[in-house]
Predict the 3D structure of the following.
Amino acid sequence: MMLRKRVLVTGGAGFLGSHLCERLLADGNDVICLDNFFTGTKDNVAPLLGDPHFELMRHDVTFPLYVEVDEIYNLACPASPIHYQHDPVQTTKTSVHGAINMLGLAKRLRAKVFQASTSEVYGDPDVHPQPESYRGYVNPIGPRACYDEGKRCAETLFFDYFRQHRLRIRVARIFNTYGPRMHPNDGRVVSNFVVQALQNKPLTIYGDGSQTRSFCYVDDLIEGFVRLMAAPDAVTGPVNLGNPAEFTIRQLAEMAVAMTGSKSKLEFRPLPEDDPKQRRPDIAIAGKELGWKPTVKLEDGLRKTIAYFDEFLRRTS
Ligand code: NAD
Ligand code: UDP
Ligand code: UDP
């Protein structure tokens, strides 16, 4: 009989978490999906509920958790500025107390533990593109700090448990990722532009749209997660995972309009405080250590994302 690994995914009912659960089941694992449904929904994992190897658990990671698993992916945390700034104290607690609890659980079980960190640890970077060795330019008291500093502290905890308790850790710094099952109202740029374009509403460009981001399609990212978890224990990270193809926000808006055949106009709004001007991952380490690089072009990923939101809007309107 094949021995199934038992894998815990916190934040498993969210955008990335639901894709990860799907992938882990397809790879023959037993999956516990844990979520408090703050930004995630049961709908994201509804197709998995009939699988006997899938279990959905309502729980908040800021509280201790006692389950028996072999691997833990810690994704629980609101990820978009609107959501993480809604209750900033809770955001920091989720990152920090959540990390402590998942590390404590991993320590008791001697399980491998993966942290979904973020390019936000680099802040508004003055080094471009960003390698893992760059220590970042973060405002510790601004509106994004609850997320950025929470994630930085979680990385600190992961490396202290690694050094102090010899835990097997994996830390991924995720750059902007998009795809089906993004939250339609969480204010992130790809979901906003696609939904606005499909509804022929103005596309809201913050600032003059010259700021840049590099967009990774979700399937590419999940492949990177799985490779990092499977890598030798010496590969702790932090490792950047993202797509280095860089676009201005204005270019993205123009693509969304063109690809949906929309009548939408571009509308310029004030730039939010501390909004990073540029962002692009240096993925040399992921290439060398994991043999990983993204394969989906923005245009192809956007086509799938547009198809998802088109269907979603028809279903929910
Ligand atoms: P998401 O909001 O869709 O998913 C986060 C999930 O965590 C949601 O299902 C939410 O309900 C759950 N959650 C939040 N607080 C919780 C708590 N206290 N206890 C239990 N569950 C909780 O966002 P996502 O884009 O899927 O992000 C997943 C992870 O990846 C996050 O940790 C995020 O910081 C990280 N990340 C994402 C991106 C990206 O571009 N999507 C970029 C960098 C980092
Ligand atoms: N913890 C947990 N599940 C476990 C073991 C620990 O949720 O199976 C939590 C527990 O709440 C603890 C935290 O993880 O506060 C850190 O655990 P650790 O053993 O590192 O520290 P300690 O228990 O000594 O505070
Ligand atoms: N943005 C925008 N219009 C929107 C939503 C976002 O111009 O409707 C901009 C935002 O100011 C930022 C970029 O798009 O410069 C990416 O924003 P997002 O919230 O998706 O991610 P993050 O800022 O965390 O990279």
